[in-house]
Amino acid sequence: MPDVPESFRQDWLRLWNLAERLSASHPRSRVFKEPEHPSTVLGFAGLFLEPPDTSSAPSGWSEYVTSPRNAITFASTHVDGVHFCALFGAADASTTTIVLCVPLADEPNQVVGTSLPEFLALGCMVGYHLDDIAYTDRTVPIGDLEHPLEPELAFLLDALRSEFGLTPWRDVRSRLEELHARYAAEIVWTPYEA
Question: Which of 4, 66, 149, 181 can pair with 154 through a Cys bridge, CB separation 3.0 to 4.6 Å?
Fold first, then answer.
């Protein structure tokens, strides 16, 4: 696996292990009619996982011209090519910059955390269909917490919160701006041709 911190590898494996447990015991509903594979069980929440294989890069690595070239894809939403990557070879070896990649956006790569748990906390109340971040210039808070979540989504988010001890971000806009200012320059990607 490319040079990502051991802490990221451990968190990715922990997320995969949670997905394996959920796929073995997930309640069946209109959405989950068949037993789920670990890579798809969190899909309703917007996290289709790549397996944490330490011997090679996952199959979905750098699918789009705008994807970071110095990152490894660990999940996607399965909508319009939106996926999540962890940068490798960062200047600060104690952090793993997590990037939301939205191929159709003018600024397709958005920093959404400095660890897998911090990223998971961002969507822990509403899910991980977070592509609005790339279209709103990080100025609109995420989610509509006034409407109840579908039971399947609530179940999955509760499992993630419980496993990782997640609490929602307090000020989404400010934290996204801070992450962008500090880490966006580390993303190596090919801008669209003009």
Answer: 149
Q: Which two tokens stand for residue 13?
A: 């494996």
Residue length, the chain? 194
For the record, the structure tokens of 187 come out as: 């993303």
Spatial separation of the C-alpha atoms in residues 84 and 120, rounded to whole Å: 11
d(C-alpha 35, C-alpha 88), whole Å: 34
Give the pLDDT band of residue 2 (cuts 50, 70, 90): low
Query: What is the pLDDT at residue 32?
Result: 52
Residue reference for tokens 């399947």: 152
- The candidate with the shortest Cα–Cα distance to 100, out of 124, 147, 66, 125, is 66
Q: What is the pTM of this model?
A: 0.87
* Dihedral sign computed on CA atoms, order 81, 87, 88, 94: negative
For 44, 65, 114, 130, 165, the CA distances from 168, given in Å and listed in that order, are: 19, 32, 15, 14, 10
CA–CA distance, 175 with 194 (Å, rounded to integer):
31
Q: How far apart are CA 128 and CA 43, in angstroms?
A: 9
**73 Cβ partners below 8 Å, 6+ apart?**
50, 58, 60, 61, 62, 63, 67, 83, 84, 85, 101
